[in-house]
Amino acid sequence: MAEVETPSDAGQVDTPLAEFIGYAMKRALSIVQADLSRVLGGFGLRAVSFSALSIVVAQPGLTQTQLADALQIERSNLVTILDELSGRGLIIRAPVAQDRRRHALMATAEGQTLAQAAQTAVKTHERALFSCLTPEEQHELKRLLTKFRGQAGA
Amino acid sequence: MAEVETPSDAGQVDTPLAEFIGYAMKRALSIVQADLSRVLGGFGLRAVSFSALSIVVAQPGLTQTQLADALQIERSNLVTILDELSGRGLIIRAPVAQDRRRHALMATAEGQTLAQAAQTAVKTHERALFSCLTPEEQHELKRLLTKFRGQAGA
DNA sequence: TATTGTTATACTCTATAACTATA
DNA sequence: TATAGTTATAGAGTATAACAATA
């Protein structure tokens, strides 16, 4: 069997995947998620509970099914997340008079305050993280991602 | 307790998260991943095994540690992936004469052929998926993601 | 009959520690 | 002692089916 020389430059070894937007997206996201977890950890929140809480604050009265749809997660998996938020007194599941199957989700005052603080912190840290891009580039990146989601995700 | 009206427009309910690039990235990626899984399923590959095979084809002689680093996954988790590729005769773990602890990863002829075909298919489907963006926008999106990773991921 | 929230469960992904064989 | 590959395992995250209460 022939001798083999192992490449020494492992840093640029993923070249064949460099042409795929999906791959670039995945690698970029993992950097953002690491930063996000760190920041939200200070508030006792995970990314998904932060998202859930933020939406409940913005759209009080949402039902669990609506929230699960908004987050694109399964209703069953949302239960644990809401138990967590509710257990900390950040949200309540209010009864809906017209339909007793549904829960209207509402943030408590404490939940609103925490959501506000966490959003500010995330915004600050995202700004720092993306400071290697110009403000125009940051805006364009978000615009392109959002446009793509709007068109391709239909 | 006051009556509650539940919002009827659940589609735009994630507004408070719309300002975060990370959130836009996550939602965009999940669309790409769904498409990718579908395409790669036809080749009996998952995203991670496709990535691994592609890199081995491009960089023959890589060791497992180098490949794990390139893919940013744990060495331990790479083992199963390589067992899978090796079991299908797509790659081999060749012995390295200078260091008998290491395995030099090499794609077989069949592995090279499959990688080539899968890459073409992924490229085609990614092009179709991103057709809602102009070629300039697609290029810019990839450039921004790559620049971000290069700068922020250091 | 259908829907809402819930439980249970299984399956994938990821992370960590410890082992072996080599260096 | 340290490194490469491996094993085992635990913890997330995610997906599916089925149930009780209600419509």
UniProtKB/TrEMBL annotation, chains A, B:
InterPro entries: HTH_MarR-typ, MarR/SlyA-like, WH-like_DNA-bd_sf, WH_DNA-bd_sf
GO molecular function ontology, one term from the record: DNA-binding transcription factor activity
Residue ranges constituting the HTH marR-type domain according to the UniProt record: 18-150
Lineage top rank: taxon: Bacteria
Any one Gene Ontology BP term: response to stress
SUPFAM superfamilies: Winged helix' DNA-binding domain
Pfam families: MarR_2
Identification of the protein by name: MarR family transcriptional regulator
